[in-house]
Amino acid sequence: MSTDDEIELMPWYEHSILYWNPTLETWENFNKRIDALFSRYKELYKKRTEEFLKQNNFVKGKEKQEDVHFEWFVRYQIQGWSKEKIAKEYYVTRQNVSNAIKEIADLVGLKPRPASKGGRPKKR
User: Fold this and answer.
1) In the predicted structure, residue 67 carries a pLDDT above the cut 90
2) pTM greater than the 0.85 cutoff
3) How do the domains of the chain map onto residue ranges?
4) In this model, does residue 61 exceed pLDDT 70?
5) How far is CA 87 from CA 71, 76, 81, 115, in A?
6) In contact, 22 and 29? CB cutoff 8 Å
7) Is-contact 90 121, C-beta < 8 A?
8) Burial tier of 3 (Cβ tally within 10 Å: 0-12, 13-18, 19+)
């Protein structure tokens, strides 16, 4: 079922600003008028919504991160993978991995684990 099938056209009456009388107005002029009305409606809707959010102390969230960045964070923080291993496994640079891990750590409020020194553990 297309969207057109789901929309029921409401009857418009001559007193409505949405009314098109083809004997008095070309389709092109009507179309421009409707587009202008809809643009104004969107502006007012946005303004009203932003005012509501401001009045109710909503805080703008951080931008959504790539899902794979969360995966890198888990591999580093929980599974103990090195940034180099993650970069090699995902075909990205170590710097990309490092930046993503820091961003996700900040987002979730955790401190990244210290980087390991690498190499084999010392014998006791």
Assistant:
1) no
2) no
3) 25-60, 67-108
4) no
5) 12, 11, 10, 15
6) no
7) no
8) exposed
